[in-house]
Amino acid sequence: MRTLNTSNTVYIVDDDEAVRDSLRWLLEANGYRVRDFPSAEAFLEAYDPAVLGVLIVDVRMPGMSGLELQEVLIARRAPLPIVFITGHGDVPMAVSTIKKGAIDFLEKPFNESDLRAIVASMFVKAQELHEQEAQRREREAMLARLTSREQQVLERIVAGRLNKQIADDLGISIKTVEAHRANIMEKLQVATVADLMKVALNH
Amino acid sequence: MASKKATGTFAAYQETPRARRYLYWLTPIIALAALLGVMATVIVWLDQLEDPYLILTADTHRTLVWVVASLCVVIIWSLIALWRHTLLRQRAEAALIAETAFRRAMENSMLTGMRVLDMEGRITYVNPAFCRIIGWNESDLIGRKPPFPYWVPGQYAAHQRMMDMLLAGNAPTSGLEMQAQRRDGSRLTTRMYVSPLVDRNGVQTGWMTSLTDITESKRIRETLAAAHERFMTVLEGLDDAISVTADGPQGLELLFTNKTYRRIFGSQATGHAQLLAGRRGRYTDEAVEVYSPMAKRWFEVHHRMLAWTDGRRVRLQVARDITERRAQEEASLRQQEKIQMTSRLITMGEMASSLAHELNQPLTAIANYSMGVVARVRAGEVDPRVLLPALEKTAAQAERAGLIIRRIREFVKRSEPRRQPVDLSSVINNAVGFADIDAQKRRIDIIKRLPAALPKVMADPILIEQVLLNLIKNGMEAMENLPGHEVVVSVAPRDDVLEVSVADQGHGLGDIDPARLFEPFFSTKGEGMGMGLNICRTIIESHHGRLWAVPNPGGGTIFSFTLPIVPGTLVEVGTDDGGAADQHDANPAPALLTGSDACDDVSVADAHADMSSWGPDLSDQEQESEAGNVPALAFTQKEHLA
Fold first, then answer.
1. Domain holding B123: CATH number?
2. Which residues of B touch A19 (CB under 8 A)?
3. What is the CATH number of the domain that holds B503?
4. CATH number for the segment(s) A9-135
């Protein structure tokens, strides 16, 4: 039994009330915090990307379908692992959704252990996604602090050019390039060029 | 008068016995003998007289008187005999004249031409009829030897051949047909009969020919023959097998057949008998389709009684080979059945798929609730207030699953079309319940306008439901991308039928002839197969109803159909059951339980409540189809209502 964790929110989107309600009942019994919605639109209205959560969504619904919802969430870069509920799984759709980042499929009717395992792994994934998202935001914030000249220099460092070449390219002295470089290292809070490369490339 | 007199004389002459007439030559001999006797007696007497001078003595005188008296007697008797003979001859002559005149008159009045040829072929006699027929005068003909003037120029050889045959005595007794040319150049055809002319001594003296003009009769005969030939050509050329039979003592007697009959059945009456198919004596003018095992073909057979040429009542049979036509008809019928069957199967397959799919919903819910309860109980959380609602919901979902299974069973059961008294409102509720699923996606309202009470109709509810569903779906499809958002289903009693109308606010019929809508393979939809309305009409017509389309005065189209009312059945229609509103109500409520037919209504209400919750899955299925998983189903889904 998991401890009740307010950040462990499971979102359920299904148009069938019985399925939705019973799934909520089952997940709550397993200690999850559950929020359910009868349609994708209702979910999008209420969803807060800042809160750690996972999404269980029916593939087919009137109005916006589960697949369309996935597209919207990808576009929004929402750090939300998705599991699709389907009556009878079909391979092309499964491949396409998993390529887009869906974790798994739940075939109706569910098996409790499968569901628990999937939801558990979803939360691991959600944690990762959240961390990645946090790092990404952090990196972006750091990169945003660089001046335009510093960005020019950073581009060339990443491209593997030497200080002398960069100085020639930009029409500035090597000393100035070295000063920019030091500033970049400081602003991005890295000690080595390798770390610098990692930050710049993960952007 | 003259002929009668002549005949009388002739008859009188005939009366005299022939034997007596032979004795007439004795009369002069007897007279002569008597005279000679008297003369001899006188001479003998004179020799005996011594007196050379005849002295009249008394004795002598007496003897002389005797002699004179005897002579007188002989003379008188002779005169009498002569007188009688003269009388007789006179009569014979008169009779002969009368006879000759009679013969001549006969000859003259005869219509048959008579001609006599002598043994060398010279014409010795012609009668006036002959001259009249042949067109030459007697003087042109008598004494002529061949070639005769009436011979047709250019055909002398043929004429000569005929003449030689005639003179050789080889002319057929049936007569000779001969062409002749008159003096005026016109031609004629004659028939001649030849017989030898034999005199009273039994010696042949020539040839007697009689001749008739057969030009007209020959022309008529030829015309008739030509007509007959034409008639026969037509009859023989007909593709119909024609035969005429009479009922004889040994069964059917075949009197006439044409070529087609002989080709198919030979010259036996067996074929005729087979096509009669045991209907001897019973004839109607309508055609009967009969299979002939002998010809291994199907025939459309007409029979008619006729009076035959000999006055008998005979049977005319005209049989047309319809094997090909029948095969085609059967093929098209089979095709039609197949199409209907396919359509039905598509709908049923789709329905079964939907139902199976739908079954997953309650099963999932049941599994989830139970697993949740198990998890809670395991964790020691056994508060009934928490657990009970979930268990109740579980039970409700199990019931929902049960209802779906009942629907499936009903569906399987309903594959046989059965007409029965049906409450039309329940059928409409069912159909609208189905269609509502689609309607909600399209944001269209289906409005029912039913009277407070409706009589039952004779119908197969599942078929009528499909017709309604089809019409409603058509209506909704017609409203695609148009501002209209209402489909109105209404019912109104009309005399002995109920009229059901489905009115949409779609693009309407435009220039399309409403009748064409129901033709097979006619479709206004891009992907339509054009079978939906045709099948609908077939279904309605099989219910003795009518299906038609008229423009909706408010824009769009109204499709209407009629169904026959079952007399004496009036069922109250429940207030609107709000099928659409109950969309997510998992608990079926018998909302329609009214009227005497409670049992029926319960199931309908159940079914309806059940159906109204199918919505999500039907849409699921469509989306799945679009995703390309089941192309066949995607195809059928689009096509089957087209």
1. 3.30.450.20
2. 361, 364-365, 368
3. 3.30.565.10
4. 3.40.50.2300
With an 8 Å Cβ cutoff, the interface of chain A facing chain B consists of: 1, 15-19, 21-23, 25-30, 58-62, 65, 87-88, 90, 92-93, 108-112, 115
Instruction: Indicate the domain borders of chain A.
Output: 9-135, 146-202
Residue B376 falls inside a structural domain: yes
Query: What does the pLDDT read at residue B544?
Result: 84
Residue B223: how many CB atoms within 10 A of its CB? 10
8 A C-beta contact, residue B133 and residue B190: yes
Q: Tell me which range, A35-44, B312-321, B447-456, is most confidently predicted by mean pLDDT.
A: A35-44
| Domain range for B202 | 110-219
Asked if A60 and B621 come within 8 Å (Cβ–Cβ), the reply is: yes
Q: A146-202, what's its fold?
A: Arc Repressor Mutant, subunit A (1.10.10)
Residue B60: Cβ-neighbour burial (10 angstroms; 0-12, 13-18, 19+): middle
Q: Does B285 lie in the same domain as B250?
A: yes
Measured CA to CA, the distance from residue B44 to residue B259 in angstroms comes to 108
Alpha helices in A108-162 (DSSP H): 112-145, 148-158
Q: Decide which of B56, B84, B108 is a domain's last residue.
A: B108
Supply the DSSP symbol for B119.
T
B228 lies in a domain?
no
Do B534 and B628 belong to one domain? yes
Show the tokens assigned to B35.
Answer: 């005279």
Whether B493 and B597 share a structural domain: yes
Pairwise CA distance, residues B214 & B177, whole Å:
9
Higher pLDDT, residue B491 or B541: B491
State the complex-level ipTM.
0.72
Residue B29 has pLDDT above 50, yes or no: yes
CA distances from B87 to A95, B3, B6, B27, B83 (A): 153, 21, 16, 14, 6
Q: Which of A29, A62, A65 sits opposite B375 (nearest CB)?
A: A29
Are the Cβ atoms of B624 and A25 closer than 8 angstroms? no
In a domain? residue B333: no
Q: Chain A: nearest CA to B481, how far in angstroms?
A: 16
Token pair 């891009």 is found at: B526
DSSP character string of B483-494 = S--EEEEEEEEE
- φ/ψ region of B633 (left if φ > 0, alpha if ψ in -120 to 50, else beta) reads alpha
Q: Which long-range contacts (CB under 8 A, 24 or more apart) does B262-267 make?
A: B264/B295, B264/B297, B264/B321, B265/B241, B265/B292, B265/B294, B265/B295
Within this chain, do residues B136 and B70 fall inside the same structural domain, yes or no? no
> How would residue B93 be classed by pLDDT, with cut points 50, 70 and 90?
very high
User: Quick one: average pLDDT of A28-38?
Assistant: 90
Give the integer Cα–Cα distance in Å for B141 and B212. 17
Q: Is residue B347 part of a domain?
A: no
Query: Between A1, A22, A93, which is nearest B393 by CB?
Result: A22
Do the Cβ atoms of B362 and A28 come within 8 Å? Answer: no
- Is residue A4 within 8 A of residue A27, CB to CB? The reply is no
